[in-house]
Design brief:
Radius of gyration of chain B: 16 Å
Radius of gyration of chain A: 30 Å
Strand content of chain A: 5-15%
Number of strands of chain B: 6
Helix content of chain A: 40-55%
Oligomer: heterodimer
Strand content of chain B: 15-25%
Structural class of chain B: alpha/beta
Chain lengths: 554, 156
């Protein structure tokens, strides 16, 4: 059999999203000139060559060599088509390549050879004086080579319809730029990478991890770019884990550290013990201490890891709420908190924090930063993926990667950032972190996420795929606020601890069984990713009509 | 440390695509190629030392500018019969420490081509003797002679 392949977007693909995006790699002004020059060349000679095009570019700094080198450097094998090529070779078929192109066949041959096609025979329109679109190039090639049995191509008119009209069996290989996508309009190389990810057969959590990898990469880069000489950087567990790994392994940054401070481990260490617990100076920490999710006095004591043997020293009253309990047992609680503070200080002293060092976390209100500053008496610069305004801003310097408050569905983003380790809830008297055991399912999930984010970030780094906060914002907004049905099912298993290590939650909280038992509003209210909840609800044939019963209050 | 890449007219010349080049690497070629519009941008220095030059690009080194006498002195005589041999000598005079050849298959399109190949091989051997690294992509210039032929007078 004689088999032919189209070249660009079939046998070869470019590292940019659209063919003309390759001109952006020259400089900011070249693309427009280059496209215009090609239009003019086409008018002069319908079978124009690359040299014909460059006759219409007057600036001497633009050379054919630059474009040829760019095409060569940015071409890669289309693995799907290459497998077909190998099968045909194995079957003993003769394979040729046919292209409507202005590049000479000699250059195209080199590109094909680079991408693994052996001794390729190439017929190109600018040399043959014919095009595929009207069938003339197919006819000319068939005069030389004989009847073509199969032709692979991406252009519907030129490769498929025209081949069919010449009695050749066409096989359609849709080009990436023509595939419907939910990836927003970001820079070309990044868009191409993300669309390939979208089209891949990876599991959903891996796809989401790779989709958000540019965010993690650019956030880390932003931290390092804003670092001043001598500043140490402390990446805080567990959400600072991926940026830490990236800074260490990809950006090869030095003088960076990974610390383990959680709300559980430091928040109640930072009271002003000379003042009552309910006094204004302690208000910030007090309110966070008694957040309602702990559920009951004993739930509260469990959440602060109050030693069981000392509970008998505390007094309770019937129907007393946590606020009243804490105020009445201030003396014993303060004693315990002071011990915790001493232990936390022993831990933090090991890192030799200095004023103006950076502390990195995903977000949001700065309470951990403030607690660390109060424990260590140092002033730090907080570098966050997202900050929300809080009273902490009166005391602490904080900087946000996202300039606008877009990370509203925090747990969804944290699911990608978090490490696979157990969480810390305190420190021993020797200053060693004490961990609670997180669930194994969540850890396995986090390990997969980390692996995929790191692989993607290394790829982005090595291939020099541009990232910037504007593109990252587009990606994050699209995913968080307009997820696809497939994406909305991400993290719909209850494996996440969010304050209570005994109860696990999902991110989306779309639980059809609970909804059918009357808990529609409860599930919606509990959801940490409401757009995803709504997408799933609207696509559920039985439950979609219930949307009108939801009270939306965000 | 100067690396001179000499590019011939055969299609393997485009093997230079994708090869890393550094500040001390120069690409030289001769005459006019069939795809001159494409290749010209890849070449840093053109030579056309024939009596009737065909390469009209500016900055091409023409016959009147070429240091023939220095090349003859280098080799101790007029041991040249083609442009490429002179280019090798010119490179040696310029202090090249490495010479690479691409697109130099010396297909025998006319009678003189065989003699020209032998002359280029002599100059390459001369360059090697002076400690210059040689790389020949097509393997024609640096091809070794076959195994001893069984001639007992030669083999001993």
């Amino acid at each position: 059999m004689l088999v032919s392949f189209d070249v660009f977007d079939t046998a070869l693909i470019r590292k940019v999203y659209k063919p003309v995006d390759i001109f952006d790699l020259v400089d900011d002004t070249f693309k427009q000139k280059r496209i215009q020059a090609e239009n003019l060349a086409r008018i002069d000679n319908m079978f124009y060559t690359l040299s014909d095009i460059y006759k219409h570019i007057p600036e001497r700094k633009y050379k054919t060599k630059t474009e040829i080198n760019l095409e060569y450097d940015n071409c890669e094998q289309n693995t799907k088509i290459y497998k077909k090529y190998l099968q045909h070779i194995e079957n003993g078929d003769t394979v040729i390549f046919i292209s409507d192109m202005y590049l000479p066949s000699i250059i195209i041959r080199r590109m094909l050879e680079k991408c693994g096609y052996t001794q390729p025979k190439v017929y190109v329109s600018c040399e043959m004086g014919a095009y595929k679109s009207d069938g003339s190039l197919f006819r000319k090639v068939q005069e030389i080579e004989g009847k073509i049995d199969i032709h692979y191509g991406d252009n519907y008119q030129c490769d498929i319809v025209a081949a069919m009209n010449e009695g050749i069996k066409p096989i359609f290989n849709v080009a990436l730029e023509n595939i419907k996508t939910d990836v927003p309009d970001v820079n070309s190389k990044l868009r191409k990478y993300l669309i390939q990810n979208e089209q891949s057969v990876l599991p959903l959590d891996c796809k989401i991890a790779r989709y958000l990898a540019p965010m993690v990469y650019d956030f880390t880069k932003w931290i390092l770019d804003n670092r001043e000489k001598g500043q140490k950087i402390f990446f805080n567990a567990r959400d600072g884990y991926l940026p830490y790994l990236l800074a260490k392994d990809v950006f090869k940054a030095d003088n960076i550290h990974y610390i383990e401070c959680s709300r559980k481990s430091v928040l109640f260490c930072s009271f002003d013990f000379s003042k009552p617990i309910e006094s204004p100076v302690n208000a910030l920490h007090f309110e966070r201490l008694i957040l309602p999710r702990t559920g009951g006095v004993f739930g509260f004591l469990e959440s602060i890891n109050f030693p069981e043997e000392r509970i008998k020293l505390l007094t309770t009253k019937p129907k007393e709420n946590i606020r009243e309990f804490v105020i009445r047992n201030q003396k014993e609680l303060y004693k315990y908190f002071k011990e915790c503070k001493d232990n936390a200080l022993k831990y933090l002293d090991k890192f030799n924090l200095s004023n103006d060092d950076m502390i990195v976390d995903v977000g949001y209100f700065g309470s951990i930063q403030m607690a660390i500053e109060q424990i260590t008496n140092k002033k730090l610069n907080g570098m966050y993926l997202q900050t929300f305004p809080s009273d902490v801003d009166k005391f602490c310097k904080r900087y946000s990667y996202f300039e606008r408050p877009i990370v509203k569905y925090c747990l969804m983003i944290e699911s990608v950032m978090s490490s696979a380790e157990d969480g810390v809830y305190g420190y021993t008297k020797f200053g060693e972190p004490i961990h609670y055991k997180d669930n194994d399912t969540k850890k396995a999930f986090s390990q997969r996420i980390i692996k995929n984010v790191m692989e993607s970030c290394k790829f982005i780094h090595n291939e020099k795929i541009p990232t910037n906060s504007i593109d990252v914002e587009k990606l994050v907004v699209r995913l968080l606020y307009y997820p696809t049905l497939e994406e909305s099912k991400y993290c719909n298993e209850p494996i996440f601890e969010n304050g209570n290590i005994k109860e696990f939650e999902s991110v989306v909280w779309f639980e059809p069984d609970l909804i059918k038992r009357g808990e529609l509003q409860h599930c919606y209210d509990k959801s940490y990713w409401r757009p995803a909840f709504m997408v799933q609800l609207r696509n559920d044939k039985e439950l979609a009509y219930l949307e009108k019963f939801i009270r939306i209050h965000d | 440390m100067t690396h001179i890449i000499i590019v011939g007219k055969m299609f393997t010349k485009y093997q230079i695509l994708g090869k890393p080049t550094f500040y001390d690497t120069l690409v030289w070629s001769m005459g006019k190629h069939d795809d001159h519009d494409i290749i010209k941008d890849f070449v840093d220095q053109w030579f056309d030392i024939h009596k009737y030059p065909v390469n009209t690009d500016p900055e091409t080194i023409l016959r009147e500018d070429f240091p023939f006498e220095e090349c003859h002195t280098l080799l101790g005589g007029r041991y040249f019969n083609n442009t490429m041999s002179y280019m090798i000598a010119y490179a040696i005079l310029g202090g090249a420490t490495k010479l690479s050849f691409y697109g130099c298959t010396f297909a025998f399109d006319h009678e003189k081509r065989k003699d020209q190949l032998e002359n280029v091989r002599q100059l390459v051997a001369f360059a090697k003797g002076r400690g210059i690294d040689i790389y020949d992509f097509d393997g024609v210039i640096t091809a070794e002679y076959p195994e001893p032929s069984g001639d007992k007078d030669f083999d001993g």
